């Protein structure tokens, strides 16, 4: 990279955005964090240069990205609200800023852009035929990056499974399996017995992104990699790790009340969107990380027990363990 080691992070107060921003700062990068009201934040990382602005305003993103070598696009509408109105305009603004500054865009990818026809093994080139609204938006988001890469805007997409980890609050682990701030009484599991599920520990995702960033000269203009993450082959590995972390081998497991969502969905955007993603829990889905291992030699991986324990501690679920 010819630019200074400046990284603009959109979504620095979120789980993955914050983790990537802290990892960049620890490696000596100058981190700029764009936020609509930074002065109102209860806690601000003093290592970041906070810039007031909105990812929906192109002028704000362009100004914040001046001189940057990286734009970490980790911003998402909270609670899945207004995805159709916000997600694509925000990536367009990041593309415009990357074009002006020469930065590479780094995007945390998901499995939403794949339909069941691509399961059970997902590679970077698996067909993207999503059946859901969010999946279509995510597929279009990546397509815009791919088109921009053909016109000189470099991008790196790291796709991973369901996020969990310290600071990651908007995910299935914190919003479904456990109740943040409350001692563990039971685990609510959305999947079926014997069905595998793909998880991704946020610190591992951030470390993977950083190691790929450090290989920038070797990356293609549009680089995509899959993480194997924490693969739960039968739906029991995550539950057993929660039991060990809590010290309660007899911790009860409840089934997620999918049947209730059709009744509540008309009154809740979040529940309406959650219902749409049920297919990800009804059949196994595993991500092939061969390309990632070939590039890095290995995939960063935290032990199951350490990852789950740190997540539960950050959610304040182990007070009485």
UniProtKB/TrEMBL annotation:
GO molecular function, one term: aldehyde dehydrogenase (NAD+) activity
GO cellular component terms attached to this protein's record: cytoplasm
InterPro entries from the UniProt entry: Epimerase_deHydtase, NAD(P)-bd_dom_sf, NAD(P)-dependent_oxidoreduct
Domain NAD-dependent epimerase/dehydratase span(s) in chain numbering: 7-219
Coiled coil region boundaries: none
This protein's name: NAD-dependent epimerase/dehydratase domain-containing protein
Species: Pandoraea thiooxydans
């Amino acid at each position: 990279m010819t630019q200074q080691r400046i990284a603009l992070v959109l979504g620095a107060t979120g789980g993955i955005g914050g983790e990537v921003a802290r990892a960049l700062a620890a490696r000596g990068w100058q981190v700029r964090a764009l936020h609509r009201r930074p002065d109102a934040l209860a806690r601000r990382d003093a290592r970041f240069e906070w810039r007031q602005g909105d990812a929906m305003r192109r002028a704000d993103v362009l100004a914040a990205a001046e001189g940057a070598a990286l734009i970490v696009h980790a911003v998402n509408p909270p609670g899945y609200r207004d995805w159709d109105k916000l997600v694509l305009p925000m990536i367009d603004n990041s593309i415009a800023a990357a074009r002006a500054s020469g930065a590479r865009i780094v995007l945390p990818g998901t499995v939403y852009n794949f339909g069941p026809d691509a399961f059970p093994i997902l590679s970077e080139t698996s067909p993207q035929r999503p059946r859901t609204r969010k999946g279509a938006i995510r597929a279009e988001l990546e397509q815009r990056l791919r088109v921009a890469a053909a016109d000189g805007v470099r991008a790196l997409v790291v796709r991973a499974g369901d996020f969990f980890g310290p600071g990651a609050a908007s995910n299935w682990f914190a919003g479904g399996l456990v109740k943040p701030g409350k001692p563990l009484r039971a685990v609510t599991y959305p999947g079926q017995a014997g069905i595998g599920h793909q998880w991704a520990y946020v610190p591992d995702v951030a470390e993977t992104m950083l190691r790929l960033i450090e290989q920038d000269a070797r990356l293609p203009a549009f680089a995509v990699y899959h993480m194997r993450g924490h693969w739960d082959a039968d739906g029991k590995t995550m539950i057993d790790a929660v039991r060990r972390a809590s010290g309660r081998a007899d911790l009860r497991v409840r089934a997620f009340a999918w049947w209730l969502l059709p009744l509540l969905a008309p009154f809740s955007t979040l529940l309406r969107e959650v219902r749409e993603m049920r297919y990800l829990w009804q059949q196994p889905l595993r991500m092939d990380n061969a390309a990632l291992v070939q590039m890095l030699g290995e995939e960063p991986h935290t032990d199951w027990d350490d990852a789950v324990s740190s997540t539960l501690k950050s959610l304040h679920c182990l007070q009485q363990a």
